[in-house]
Protein 1
Amino acid sequence: MDKIKGTMKSFTWIRNAVLDNPDLNSSDIMTYLSLMRFKNNTTQECYPAVLTIMRLARLGQRTVYRCLDKLEQAELIEIKRHRGISNRYSILEPPKEWGEVPQETDPADTPF
């Protein structure tokens, strides 16, 4: 078991389109990764508390709220807000117009 409230995931997937989007900064991506860590693969939903997101993303409360709003505007998540209990976050597929960045075909072309 993971240290975070009974989760058993040992890794978290993220779409390249999310990482490569120039409109998302590192705080946005860390917030998104924190949500992805708790995502139910069947329902595509998760319910982490903002304090949990803050701790995992290593961000302040106001920054997390700004990032959540930005991720919602970017159509990466939907938020169903609940007063007094954790919000429900639905993880959405990145918009098709973002595309995927092609993978390198020749390792010799990699700069490092």
Protein 2
Amino acid sequence: MTNAALVQNVAYLVILLALAKPLGVFMARVYQGERTFLTSVLGPLERFLYRAAGVKEDEEMSWKTYAIAMAMPAAADVKFCTVSAVICTK
């Protein structure tokens, strides 16, 4: 391992360890529904996107709704890749 790679790995580890506690506290506050410094900035955007998508913020998803929500992007991706492959082979 070269000196540059060693310095890079040590710097990465130091930055990772330095950010672990603040990011953990931030994520805990987000998951508990408490206000964070980003709430005032991103809150209005989040509410607009929820309203546009017809999502009720305080309503839980059933497992079936969640499964469909996870499957839709994958299905769209398969369709897009299939169409792209057909177009590119012509």
Protein 3
Amino acid sequence: MAKSNERKAKDKLIGLFFHSYPNGRLRWQGRILRKLKPGLYRAELYSWVTGMENGAVLVDREQMADEDWEFYTAAEWRFA
């Protein structure tokens, strides 16, 4: 039962927007597009200038934790 709940929690990342902070410095802003396999996700990046789509990266949950990613449910922060 715990594994089932854990899987559901991981899937909740899909569709969330984020900022990444490696070494305490802001690096990326984007959105989690899809889960490719357990622990590995495809993320779409957004331009700092226009807020428009600007590429994509593959990231794992360990990287998200190491870089202190912050997640958001809405995209308004891209245009602030």
Protein 4
Amino acid sequence: MGRVNFRMTGDASSGRLSASVELTGSAPKELHVKLRIPSKNTLQNLTVNGQPATLGGLNGDTVVIRSAGLKRFEVGGRIA
């Protein structure tokens, strides 16, 4: 798979959360990005590369991305 470049930022005033993921090697079929936020909050309006996305995982805080051979992903959402 190779190296993974990852960056996540949040803006408390607007409630926006964004993450950038870039794969330098071959792309896996699926990529899991866990978005850790305070347990009292929820994630809304989640997107991956501008397309609507949903959360999965045991705690409902993981974006499951089907890579389709892509190597760069922009995840966005709002913390409520």
